[in-house]
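[Q] Does anyone have a clean structure-token version of this?
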Amino acid sequence: MHFNSLIFLLFLVVNVLLGIRSIRRPRTQHTQSTTANIIGAILAITYGGEVLCNPLNIDDLLRLAGHTVSYFIIGNLLANRLHLFLSNGSVAETMGKLYGHLIRKIVAICGILHSAGVAAIQFKLLSIAICWVFSIQANYSLIIAALLITFSVRSNNIQSLTLVRIVRCITFGILLPMMAWTVWKYMISQYHGNQMHLALAIKRSWNRLIDLHPDPLDYIACFTVFAIPSFYPAQVERIVLSKNATQIKCSFNGAGFFSLSINLLLLWVALLIQKDTCNLMLSTISFTTFATYMPLKPLFMLGIAALTISTAGANLHAATGLMANDLPNLFKWVKQPVLYEAIVGVMAILLSLYTKDQVIW
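[A] Here you go.
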């Protein structure tokens, strides 16, 4: 087995073992969550495996920029109005108290479908990474990815495993800067350090990046849609973790600043990789250009695994919370909490198998 594959396999195995070991731990109390943990949880649901697996195009960058603005809006304009969430267990429960029991059920069902859809995307992305490393059939790798992520959900309820959080921090703090530096060094060597040619290459990259839609209003509309705060289940779960409105404000403002830094770094990487081929996937770069300068492939694969596990785990846990808290009569036959996770996991697997377009969230 290749050394890169061994590192990736070791990470997955250790993650599963830690998840199994911590299954019997009690549920984390909301009052025990610090601002740093909530910021990390918000970033976990913002940046999934698609950051490294999918092409970096203008639509994705506008989506991420919109999320950043929405976090600042929540932190500065809406934080003092979110006290209703603090005494409730989910967004459906809050809506139920305001508009009635029927609305609570509708919101719970919609939230479960949304969370299962996001988890399905992450299942698919992790299965693609597994196929890259081990050359396993797609359907089998999808089932393996679903099992790996499901084990990590129940281990810590809401927070990601410490190992996953460490790798996620390394991805944004080390991997992405190294990727940007590697491609930049490649460009410098290609243009022999000529600053004018480098500036023209960056300008051409920018033109390719924004030349996706003919109408500029499309960019404004896309950015505006994602800038509107959307209180979907996984995000509300992070609000419920807060002790008071002050912590909500600090958490979302902190997440906004970190998200802004990550988005600027992703924008720079997107400009650099637009030079040769529009919408070039980061995964392609890791196997070609990066190999010339440094062995980034193991860290790249670990980054994909950590991002997919944390994002899918957060949404799966939000869906199971909606089932147990807001639809007890519909799932009264469920005796063990782990069955909730199995139900949502099966829903996500079916979406991954039978949905051709990944734009399901």
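[Q] Thanks! Anything notable?
[A] Residues 26-31, 276-281, 286-294 have pLDDT under 50 and may be disordered.
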